[in-house]
Amino acid sequence: MAAVPIAQPRARAVSDRDEIAAFLRTDRRYAAYALGDLDSSARGRLTWGIAYDGAGRAIAIAMHHDGLVPQPLFLMGEPSGVHAVLAGVIKPRDAFFQSNEVLDAAVTDLYELDRPTLLLRMVVDQATFVPFAGNATRLGQSDIEDLNRLYQLGFRAGFPGTILDEGLYYGVRVGGRLVSAAGTHVVNPREGIAVVGNVMTHTDFRGHGFAKMVTSAVTVALLERVPDVALNVHADNAPAVAAYARLGYREHHRLTERFGRRRSGGWGLMRPIREAMRFGWPRDQR
Question: Which of 5, 48, 261, 267 has its CA 20 to 30 A from that of 276?
């Protein structure tokens, strides 16, 4: 009897929120950023693609932020489905991949990928959270200059004051000076998910537990709004991983972040921008 050929995944562009959300919810902690963006002010700049197997079952999704410079490209699902989406639906010339090693390997015929940054996705909920007492206080519009002064030590660009209204930020002051802060990347109460980010402590004040204080304060506030809170941390940052673990965060997935360029078409013109951006994406600093 002749073998029955296996149907190749088919992919198409999608915009239906419920269809997108249904797939992301299959691993909502892995998809925390994407679920956050789904209902954020950035949603109008997002392009989505889903791949389906021969039975019509959704097996993979990709999301790309539109923009002139390399933008985030989120991948999730089965490798063959991810490949189908990037082969025929979402085809940025260059992008900042947010994925994992298995999915990256599935698209190397389509994209030349730089060496990855390895991250841990850590998650916490009410059952595992262990708060850390401290004197962190909620930051508001009047604190934006101090916050940007602190962040400019490790991040390339300043933040607008609106981030203090749209997200939650807490800080620690010593002698009136803001020396540590943490905030949020995304918050989506509708999907019950939030992501902590922009954790920063001034180099002169590290080793005093301030980063743990502000992260704990943000987590407390978020868990009052959503059941699951996530964050990313560099896999080789052992002190940060240990600090988050003491707050009850646990590893959920190992991630990769890296630049990729389409194997056809003039990436060379984008190389100066890519090299500048390589060192410009915010990284939490303890």
Answer: 48
